[in-house]
Amino acid sequence: MRTLLVWLAGGLSLVGSSQAALASGWNMPVGVTDLSREIYNLHMVIFWICVVIGVAVFGVMFYSLIRHRHSKGAKAANFHENTTVEVIWTAVPLLILVGMAIPATATLQKIYDPSDAELDVMVTGQQWRWRYEYLGEDVAFNSNMSTPRAQIRGDEERGENYLLEVDEPLVLPINRKVRFLFTSDDVIHAWWVPDFAVKQDTIPGFISENWVRINEPGIYRGQCAELCGVDHAYMPIVVHAMEEDDFETWLVERQEMAAEEALGVDREWEMDELMERGEGVYGSICASCHQVEGQGSPPAFPALAGNEQMLADIDWHKDTIINGVSGTAMPSFRTTLNPVELAAVITYTRNAWGNDTGDAVQPAEIAERLER
Amino acid sequence: MWGVIKSVLAAFLGVQKEQQRREDFEKGNPMAFILVGIIMALLFVGLIALVATWAAG
Ligand SMILES: [Cu+2]
Questions:
Q1: Given CB atoms, is B55 within the 8 Å cutoff of chain A?
Q2: Which of A128, A196, A259, A345 is the S-S candidate for A281 at Cβ 3.0 to 4.6 Å?
Q3: Is the domain of A139 the same as that of A214?
């Protein structure tokens, strides 16, 4: 009787402490989609099955060890082979495994069914940012980490969402099935948002699919989950899930912005405008390699401040940024940046940090160069 | 023949009577066990594929 009570108390405290662990955030999140809830429940069921088996097996083992110990005069039984017992301990795990596989397979099938989506978003991993493209909607943008480098170096106090904040979050409507098409421009990345229970590798040259239907508006954060280079930790994911009406408003706004940007290609830009725009682009895209002051970190990343070849040969400068340098870390920005951004960043790098060439590169000229 | 099939089934499960095992090794023909083993492995794969397509359908 006393032993039974001890076991009961032990079992209860185990349940209690695991309940505490759930609340503490050590467990996987329940998430905000039907599917994430399902995955969570599956995880918990299997977890408890493992706990029961673990307690039973170790319970019997320790009980036997203590009860039949040598000092109490226990004699070892010396028998060999018992087919019935062997069949039972083979069949029972088999049944348990099959029992777990059935609900797990049913959930997997749902995960792999992106049909009937109402919105398609192409997600492209790049060293080191995400690019989102709303297919058929003329909206596309890059999502760069916005945590200041000073916080990373430790010169400034860390913010609340340190390393988990971006300049442009992915915006999605709630209650709609959104299909993701994942790919990569360079190496394998992985798009991981725990609250959606979505973790998908993005592979260059391949397109993989996944989907979400978010139930609650909110801001959900994630990270790249595949080691992809030095700035792997600096390509977070932020998803802003909104009510459908708000999403429509946002989408129209973005479409108007895109149309305006397209018009901007044809007009003449002032030096000041280009420099201001260029500084922003440089800071979010180029500074991770060429450094904020253009000093680079030779020999890996050449300095752009006072770079003689670059300053002397403007055509080479433009082509290097548009096409990248194959076989090196310098990526092509042909698709990542639009003509205005390209013109602005070229102008900026030709005129910042004492590079006083006075060249104002016009977006129209870059657009023409991109056609070639 | 039935004896060979039973022994192969027991091998699939990983449990066999010691007495039967000794008999198989002393009197059995290895080729028979290998052939029946391969055929039954193929049947098993086919069965799993069938169940999977049925479950997915
Ligand atoms: Cu990555």
A1: yes
A2: A345
A3: yes
Q: Is residue A79 part of a domain?
A: no
Q: Are residues A229 and A124 in the same domain?
A: yes
Contacts across the A-B interface (CB distance below 8 Å): 14
CB atoms inside a 10 Å sphere around CB A130: 25
Q: What is the DSSP letter of A336?
A: T
Q: Do A90 and B13 touch (CB under 8 A)?
A: yes
Of A122, A138, A132, the residue nearest A252 (C-alpha):
A138
Contact A105/B55, CB-based, under 8 Å? Answer: yes
Q: Does A78 touch chain B (CB under 8 A)?
A: no
Cβ burial, residue A309 (10 Å; 0-12/13-18/19+): exposed
- Condensed to tens digits (0 to 9), the pLDDT of residues A107-126 reads 998 998 988 999 999 999 99
Domain range spanning residue A198?
119-262
Domain segments of chain B as ranges: 2-56
Contact B56 A87 (CB under 8 A): no
- Assigned domain for A76 exists: no
A13, pLDDT greater than 80: no
Which stretches of A195-268 are assigned E, i.e. beta strand? 198-202, 208-212, 218-224, 237-242
For the entire predicted model, the pTM comes to 0.73
What's the pLDDT at B27? 86
Look up the ipTM and state it: 0.71
